[in-house]
Amino acid sequence: MRTRTLALSTAFGAALLTAAALPATARDGLVAAPPARADEGPVRAAELLAKVTSCSQVSRGKFRTDPGAAATVPVCGLNGAVFWKADLDVDCDGQPTAACNNKTDPWFQPDTRFHQANDKPLNAEKVPYVVVPGAGSLWDYGSAGVTGGTVVAVVYDNKVEYAVVGDTGPSTTIGEASYATAKALGMNPDPRTGGAESGVTYILFQHSQATPIESHGAAATLGQALAQEFLADN
């Protein structure tokens, strides 16, 4: 399947969908890119959650939300998407910033699995991104049509935040997103004490890619279109 992409036009400074790579339903649902905040676009959190009430498991086993916890979280499949329901641990990895550094986060790493257009690591304080489990015996994200820049609808507390896949973590744990994602969803973004213990739904739109990966406008605009397509197809 062709990758569904969104590229930013430097001439106009606006996010544009690559029409040739998107189905008509997504192209017809294009709306302007909003500010970087949760609840973006016409698709409501309740509409997305209504589509993920049951799970057709696609992972070969279940994941832990934290090391030592019971393995209870499957990766589930729908038309054009995979999803899971878990907690949200705050990831500060990437470029050091005032909020994300080795003093504010004892687990800080100055790199991310996927890099921005200039090959620098992502900025967790500014870029809403999601961490997916590294490829392993339970599930291989690459084989599932997921890669760096894949668009994710993160749903929590009646809010929707469109993010990108930006990093990978241990192959047996799940439920992690960047400082910017947590903040946009109204959570405490502190990597030591913040996040959410449960109630977070991650819907990854397969074979999609926001370009450049660090542009929240690109992710939000493409996410809005793909969310409408997701509702129509499931």
From TrEMBL:
Where it sits in the cell: the answer is: Secreted
Q: Which residues cross the membrane?
A: none
Q: Which InterPro entries match?
A: Chitosanase_fungal
Q: Which GO terms describe its molecular function?
A: chitosanase activity
Its signal peptide is 1-26
Q: Which GO terms describe its cellular component?
A: extracellular region
Q: What is this protein called?
A: Fungal chitosanase
Pfam families the UniProt entry points to:
Glyco_hydro_75 (PF07335)
Which UniProt keywords are listed?
Carbohydrate metabolism, Glycosidase, Hydrolase, Polysaccharide degradation, Secreted, Signal
Q: Which domain of life is it from?
A: Bacteria
Q: Name one GO biological process term.
A: polysaccharide catabolic process
Keyword Calcium applies:
no
Keyword Signal found: yes
